[in-house]
Design a protein that fits this description.
Blueprint: E1 2-3, E2 40-41, E3 54-55, H1 73-85, E4 89-93, H2 97-101, E5 107-108, E6 114-116, H3 122-135, E7 142-148, H4 150-154, H5 157-165, E8 171-176, H6 213-219, E9 224-229, H7 233-245, E10 250-255, H8 259-262, H9 269-278, E11 285-288, E12 292-295, H10 305-308, H11 319-342
Parallel strand pairs: 4-6, 4-7, 7-8, 8-10, 9-10
Antiparallel strand pairs: 1-5, 2-3, 9-11, 11-12
Length: about 350
């Protein structure tokens, strides 16, 4: 956790907390599977559809000491994203998990500038920040709009639609944990059908299917939209890097598992995220200019039960409901493949 006390050019001041308050980072843990070492083999989903890729050592922009839950997928999502975007980044984020566990001023777990904004205004503020930078002659700083599913699918959708319709030069990433986790695990329009939340308990589980946010972004014909997962960091890195080089509106739907809300063990966060990709519950793909669909390399398809089995939020699904879940996933997957084939 950094103390805001030392000046950074073009941003707010920062510094570091005392060593006595430091929490060991994964890099300091010798046997950690998540250790970020030079050329370390970290489970990924790369160009060949495998889960291995050499990862070079980079300066850590996400410092120890955040307030997130153990195993938080949203924390991993930010760490992976910033490792690609680098220091020349300004983050705009609304209310949500990240706005709470980033830290309380004068502390921050990020070493890049962060603007905390009203729930509905993320894309609008990000567009304003980018315009201000442009007036100053700065065309190199990446403005990252970073919102959860509540701030993207629901409360922030109007501002997001307006910004991308204008083709504002921002990168909007939705870290999707499929509910309003920060305020008590309430359902959102990203919550899958059959999923338990505190507002859709087992006696009245959510019947509506998850909103297809990438379809909505593609309908705006923006330059670039994609899905990504914390369980496939190589694919995520490739897409963030690609989005970084494109001008205009870019959108990445980033799957971020949530042990607290999904009722799975914290150490299974990456395994659950990988199972979502393997089962095609959350397939990886890209959309260019709203009409060119491209499937990303993925491992061989697996049954959805391997995704559902670790999560308490699905434990009350009957055998028939699980079959229906599988059928919906299969239908959506075939529909996506048809779009990709039609795009050539």
């Amino acid at each position: 956790m950094n103390r805001v006390s030392e000046s950074i050019p073009g941003s707010f001041p920062r510094g570091s907390a005392s060593e006595s308050n430091q929490i060991k980072s994964p890099r300091e843990v010798e046997d950690s599977p998540h250790a970020c070492r030079s050329k370390a083999e970290i489970p990924l989903c790369g160009a060949a559809g495998s889960f291995n890729l050499p990862v070079p050592e980079k300066r850590e922009l996400f410092t120890p000491g955040h307030y997130g839950c153990p195993g938080c997928g949203a924390a991993l999502a930010m760490r992976q994203t910033l490792s690609v975007l680098g220091e020349d980044t300004i983050v705009v984020m609304p209310a949500g998990c990240w706005s709470t566990f980033i830290g309380i001023y004068p502390y921050s777990c990020l070493t890049v500038p962060v603007l905390s904004v009203a729930f509905a205004s993320t894309a609008a503020v990000a567009a304003g920040v980018k315009s201000g930078l442009s007036i100053q002659g700065n065309d190199h700083t990446t403005v990252l709009a970073w919102a959860g599913d509540g701030g993207t699918f629901d409360i922030g959708l109007q501002a997001l639609s307006g910004a991308v319709e204008r083709d504002e030069d921002i990168l909007f990433i939705c870290y999707d944990n499929e509910a309003y986790m920060n305020t008590g695990i309430q359902r959102s329009s990203a919550t899958p059908a059959g999923g338990w939340t505190t507002t859709t308990p087992d006696s009245a589980r959510k019947a509506q299917r998850k909103k297809d946010i990438v379809e909505i972004m593609a309908a705006h014909r923006i330059p670039y939209a994609a899905t990504a997962s914390i369980g496939a960091p190589a694919d995520l890195a490739e897409k963030v890097q690609k989005a970084k080089t494109i001008r205009g509106s870019r959108f990445i739907h980033l799957f971020a598992s949530c042990p607290t809300g999904w009722r799975h063990d914290p150490e299974l966060s990456l395994e659950v995220a990988r199972a979502a990709v393997k089962s095609r519950v959350f397939p990886l793909y890209e959309v260019s200019e709203g009409n060119v669909w491209k499937e990303s390399p993925m491992p061989e398809k697996e049954p959805v039960d391997r995704y559902l089995k670790h999560q308490g939020r699905f434990k009350k699904l009957s055998a028939v409901e699980r079959q229906q879940f599988q059928k919906q996933v299969d239908n959506d997957w075939e529909r996506l493949l048809k779009k990709c084939r039609a795009s050539g």
